[in-house]
Amino acid sequence: MKTYLVTGGAGFIGSNFIHYMLKKYSDIKIINYDKLTYAGNLENLKSISKNPNYIFIQGDICNRKKLQQLFQKYDIDYVINFAAESHVDRSIRDPEVFVKTNVLGTVALLDTAKNAWIVQNGFKQGKKYLQVSTDEVYGSLGSEGYFTEKTPLDSHSPYSSSKASADLMVKAYFDTYKMPVNITRCSNNYGPYQFLEKLIPLVINNCLNKMHIPVYGDGLNIRDWLYVEDHCKAIDMVIHSGPCGEVYNIGGHNERTNIQIVKTIISYIHDNVDSSVGERLIKYVEDRKGHDRRYGIDPTKIKDKLGWYPETKFEDGIVKTIKWYLGNKDWMNNVTSGDYKKYYEKMYKDK
Ligand code: NAD
Ligand code: DAU
């Protein structure tokens, strides 16, 4: 029975990953280690909280002592590091916590795993550390071309620079100690359990509450959207089949401008939920500082080498996602009754 240490498992992608893995494998143990910041929500895992193969431990990836105790208590085979401060807008206002968690936390986790796994002639068999990174480390594209694994790192925001720094530390542990690691760099995810501060759930929530939808700048920035389950599938494949030291880009060639995303959601809600919701809710607001123009992933390597492919078409995934939020209003109310309301008022008050 393999034991997975999933950090940040109470967040958006981490919780989807835990659901995905426990559904797929009955012979694994998952330890979810999460600090439960504003973005961590145990509601996301309510349906599996009593599964005997699942354990939750509240903790910070910067806390080496707690991490060491974890590695002493359990024979951990795989570490999948989702834990991060993940929101670009927050990083522009308060960069320091991004360096603490995303850089120093990653190093604490890497180092603890290394110390637990190292033996005289290398590392114990079958161990692996996977760093969940992002396409944002590559910077911004013009209207043509794609990010490949060979594209130089050229991050711009405090968030993406903290993720790029973490990637370089993971690389250093492979180059220096030959630690068994992989890095995955995925494009924008969407799906159930995404915190409401991110574009897609924010638009759904604002439509349902008839609030303005803030569109940054001219609304023509492009993101490359992937349904979250396809990201989870890719991570599972990289853990089991990716040769150590390799980096994999993950994306499904689903580029959309932000305004296209906004209009798609408005139109679905107008047609299926409330005909009074319409494009007049759109409000063009001041642009994000240093706003990356376009992301576009070239996923050729993971497709050719590991046989990964995305299963959910954007047209289906976006409807599934909107329906999930509509069917989980308690989950949304739970989020909006917490700090989110204060964050939203502060963030958008001058816009
Ligand atoms: P999220 O903000 O929804 O969740 C982050 C989780 O990490 C939360 O549960 C939070 O409580 C936990 N956490 C934060 N600081 C911690 C700490 N110091 N110690 C332990 N736990 C901590 O983020 P997400 O969108 O699920 O992203 C997960 C990972 O995937 C991140 O590393 C992010 O950079 C990466 N990523 C995200 C996307 C995307 O579109 N959301 C795309 C590519 C990569
Ligand atoms: O590309 C992967 C990255 O995608 C991940 O690494 C990040 O963790 C994740 O947050 C996401 O970053 P983005 O900045 O692309 O996502 P966000 O949902 O914040 O914004 C998507 C686009 O929408 C971006 O161009 C900014 C714009 N936007 C966002 C918000 C919240 C708006 O126009 N209005 C908004 O209110």
UniProtKB/TrEMBL annotation:
Superkingdom, taxonomy of origin: Bacteria
A GO biological process held by the record: nucleotide-sugar metabolic process
E.C. number(s) listed in UniProt: 4.2.1.46
InterPro entries from the UniProt entry: dTDP_Gluc_deHydtase (IPR005888), NAD(P)-bd_dom (IPR016040), NAD(P)-bd_dom_sf (IPR036291)
Pfam families in alphabetical order: GDP_Man_Dehyd
Keywords: Lyase, NAD
Cofactor requirements of the protein: NAD(+)
Catalysis performed (reactions): dTDP-alpha-D-glucose = dTDP-4-dehydro-6-deoxy-alpha-D-glucose + H2O
GO molecular function: dTDP-glucose 4,6-dehydratase activity
Residue ranges constituting the NAD(P)-binding domain according to the UniProt record: 5-320
Keyword NAD: yes
NCBIfam families per UniProt: dTDP_gluc_dehyt
Similarity comment: family membership: Belongs to the NAD(P)-dependent epimerase/dehydratase family. dTDP-glucose dehydratase subfamily.
Protein name (record): dTDP-glucose 4,6-dehydratase
UniProt lineage: Bacteria, Bacillati, Bacillota, Clostridia, Eubacteriales
